[in-house]
UniProtKB/TrEMBL annotation:
<dbReference type="InterPro" id="IPR020568">
    <property type="entry name" value="Ribosomal_Su5_D2-typ_SF"/>
</dbReference>
<dbReference type="InterPro" id="IPR052203">
    <property type="entry name" value="GHMP_Kinase-Related"/>
</dbReference>
<keyword id="KW-0547">Nucleotide-binding</keyword>
<dbReference type="InterPro" id="IPR013750">
    <property type="entry name" value="GHMP_kinase_C_dom"/>
</dbReference>
<dbReference type="GO" id="GO:0042352">
    <property type="term" value="P:GDP-L-fucose salvage"/>
</dbReference>
<dbReference type="Pfam" id="PF00288">
    <property type="entry name" value="GHMP_kinases_N"/>
</dbReference>
<dbReference type="GO" id="GO:0050201">
    <property type="term" value="F:fucokinase activity"/>
</dbReference>
<feature type="domain" description="GHMP kinase N-terminal">
    <location>
        <begin position="75"/>
        <end position="155"/>
    </location>
</feature>
<dbReference type="Pfam" id="PF08544">
    <property type="entry name" value="GHMP_kinases_C"/>
</dbReference>
<dbReference type="InterPro" id="IPR006203">
    <property type="entry name" value="GHMP_knse_ATP-bd_CS"/>
</dbReference>
<dbReference type="InterPro" id="IPR036554">
    <property type="entry name" value="GHMP_kinase_C_sf"/>
</dbReference>
<feature type="domain" description="GHMP kinase C-terminal">
    <location>
        <begin position="232"/>
        <end position="307"/>
    </location>
</feature>
<dbReference type="InterPro" id="IPR014606">
    <property type="entry name" value="Heptose_7-P_kinase"/>
</dbReference>
<dbReference type="InterPro" id="IPR001174">
    <property type="entry name" value="HddA/FKP"/>
</dbReference>
<dbReference type="GO" id="GO:0005524">
    <property type="term" value="F:ATP binding"/>
</dbReference>
<comment type="similarity">
    <text>Belongs to the GHMP kinase family.</text>
</comment>
<keyword id="KW-0808">Transferase</keyword>
Length: 326
């Protein structure tokens, strides 16, 4: 039996520049962190050697790959040439559609589990590259590359996307005290709504391709990601929070699907209560509200957002890993 896990992620700046329609014109960059919430995949031999037994939000029992309904499972099994006689089960700490990169975390955990099932090792870059191939090239999902690399590598990273398709992952190194302060000053609140990531991202891509000013907005968001990396490395966490706010103002201007009146009210209430800055995690439209708030103001922010569910926030430093193998 193999138990594989990969973390979810929170993106701070540069989202949208990891999509091919942007980085093929101009290099993209994002600042993000992996968090200690995970997608888990369990793989082991199935007693019926003629079946694929798959368990997620539903259960599938298939004779052939073509009969498998779940696209990621079907194509990952095909990619790794897995024959019938295998059981794959998945669970996650947080549901999909909440802006934390759950689909890519699942893809990375699944690919790692399939390698381990064959007693083979795959590097973190290899896991991310294969997850990108699976989701973007094979399944034609309208998504970028940041989630796969964040899930594979873990940690706090500055990730660059080159015009030739190459990706550079650069860990952001802070002193232990500053890293702990940063971690403790970030709050996550679930807005209560899940959304179709594909729809939101497709709208953003169309806007960026059709409107040069929208493309320039993403360009400014990329520049901000470099600025925020440097701010963190200088240890100016208040400036980081202020930059997070500027980035959200840029992002919300891309399309009307990124935010709504309810989300804007939550965000303004949090700012009025003491949060310096924040944004919606992921593409927008719902999911998690990410806030930067100093410790001494957090209780007021929690009171202002009392109708929302807060999720414990910690960084993940392991990335994709095999938690159990027997």
């Amino acid at each position: 039996m193999i138990v594989s896990s990969a973390p979810f992620r929170v993106s701070f700046a540069g989202g949208g520049s990891d999509i091919a329609s942007y980085y093929r014109r101009q290099a993209g960059a994002v600042l993000s962190c992996a968090i200690a919430k995970y997608s888990f995949v369990i793989v082991h031999n199935y007693f019926n050697e003629n079946k694929y037994h798959l368990k997620y939000t539903r259960t599938e029992l298939a004779d052939t790959l073509e009969e498998i309904a779940h696209p990621l499972l079907r194509e990952a099994l095909r990619m790794h040439r897995v024959e019938p006689g295998i059981e794959v089960a998945s669970v996650a700490d947080i549901p999909s559609g909440t802006g934390l990169g759950s689909s890519s975390s699942f893809s990375v955990a699944l690919i790692n589990a399939l390698y381990a099932h064959k007693s083979r090792f795959a590097s973190k870059d290899q896991l991310a590259e294969e997850a990108c191939k699976l989701e973007i090239d094979i399944l034609k999902e309208p998504i970028g590359k940041q989630d796969q690399y964040a899930a594979a590598h873990g940690g706090l990273n500055f990730i660059e996307f080159n015009s030739n398709g190459g990706v550079n992952v650069q860990p952001v190194v802070l002193g232990s005290e500053k890293m702990a302060e940063l971690e403790s000053n970030i709050l996550l609140f679930f807005t209560g709504s899940q959304r179709d990531t594909r729809s939101v991202l497709s709208t953003q891509v169309q806007a960026m391709e059709a409107d040069e000013e929208k493309f320039r907005t993403v360009e400014r968001m990329v520049q901000l990601s470099y600025e925020m990396r440097d701010i963190l490395m200088a240890g100016d966490l208040s400036a980081f929070g202020e930059a997070l706010h500027r980035g959200w103002m840029m992002k919300r201007s891309l399309t009307s699907k990124i935010t709504n009146n309810a989300i804007d009210e939550f965000y303004e209430a949090a700012r009025a209560a003491g949060a310096i800055g924040g944004k919606l995690a992921g593409a927008g439209g719902g999911g998690f509200l990410v806030l930067y708030c100093p410790k001494d103001r957090q209780e007021k922010v929690r009171q202002a957002l009392s109708q929302l569910k807060e999720i414990e926030f910690r960084f993940d430093w392991s990335g994709a890993r095999i938690a159990f193998a027997q």
